[in-house]
Amino acid sequence: MKLVKLQNEKIPPIAFGTWSWGTGANGGDAVFGNHLTETDLKPVFDAAMDAGFNLWDTAAVYGMNASEDILGSFIKGRKNVLISTKFTPQIAGDNDNAVEELLNGSLNRLGVDHVDIYWIHSPADVNRWTSKLIPLMKSGKVKYAGVSNHNLDEIKLASSILAEEGLKISAVQNHYSLLYRSSEEAGIIDYCNENDIVFFSYMVLEQGALTDKYSAKHPLPSDTRRGEAFNVNVLSKLEGLIQVMREIGSKYNASTAQIATAWSIAKGTVPIIGVTKKSHIEDAIKATKVSLTEQEIRDLETSAEETGVEIRGAWEKPMH
């Protein structure tokens, strides 16, 4: 498995996400229709670690602490786990010390003394919140700083704030998939490549819509975020793209999910894939072995554009 360089760290080419771990506000039940417990997830975590996938992405707001609690219980006694978690400004209120206090809460739940990547989850106030990372980075509680859901101007502003103290943004995490390429179109991915910043792509599989497990006849779970976003009408528009993904996949003995993931790797990004089953680990292993040709990448992107489908999360704003 070819590792990716995150400044002085070697990281796997795919990070694993835990948004759907645990239940509660913004948790697996509300967003995905899952009700997963530690018993369900422990074999998945162990299989991932055994395969060399040791970078785990979580957030305090996923299930309002539930995801971090579960991940924390799994990493006890392990030395080689890389942790990525987030500060979400929307839950900070007027508390000016919220970044440090919320980080301390995350560290306690995770049972660690530092996080490898700490993200400002959204650009609610770039000047206010980015500067709060500085003492946490200098103390060693935060190894690398990242920004998520920021547009190019906001990324540049955050970079300049840290640069004044000799620090830098090491990672950007935005929604990026065959159906949603706004970070590419806005020049964000180019900026990251030029400035030694790793671009992490989330919702590469569009929460299951690009896995070929769902269709107009077999819709996503109703009463969930993904079921509403990718309803029957939207799924029917994806049939042509799914067919192209199937055809390309047949050349590599790969599923459409593996092709979508391989595409995001081919584009120079590190996808964050939500994992809830052991089969998802096998998908990731396979995806890292698929090397798409330039023509196949073009065919996938053309077909994706022809769907006319672009679904942005309620929490997202346009990138340009």
Count of discrete structural domains:
1
Q: CATH topology, what is it called?
A: TIM Barrel
The CATH homologous superfamily:
NADP-dependent oxidoreductase domain
How many E strands?
Answer: 10
CATH architecture: Alpha-Beta Barrel
Task: Explain what you see.
- This protein is an alpha/beta fold.
- It has a single domain, classed as TIM Barrel.
- About 45% of the residues lie in helices and about 15% in strands.
- The chain contains 15 helices and 10 strands.
- Strand 5, helix 4 and strand 6 form a beta-alpha-beta unit.
- It is globular and about 50 Å long.
- The mean pLDDT is about 95.
Quick recap of the structure?
The protein is an alpha/beta fold and 320 residues long. The protein contains 15 helices and ten strands.
Give me the secondary-structure topology.
Layout (H helix, E strand, L loop, with lengths): L3 E3 L2 E3 L3 E3 L10 H5 L5 H13 L4 E3 L8 H10 L6 E6 L10 H13 L4 E6 L5 H5 L2 H7 L2 E7 L3 H12 L5 E7 L6 H4 L2 H7 L3 E5 L22 H5 L2 H6 L1 H14 L3 H11 L3 E5 L3 H12 L4 H14 L13
Parallel strand pairs: 3-4, 3-10, 4-5, 5-6, 6-7, 7-8, 8-9, 9-10
Antiparallel strand pairs: 1-2
Helix pairs in contact: 12-13, 12-15, 13-14
Descriptors:
320 residues; alpha/beta; TIM Barrel; 10 strands; 15% strand
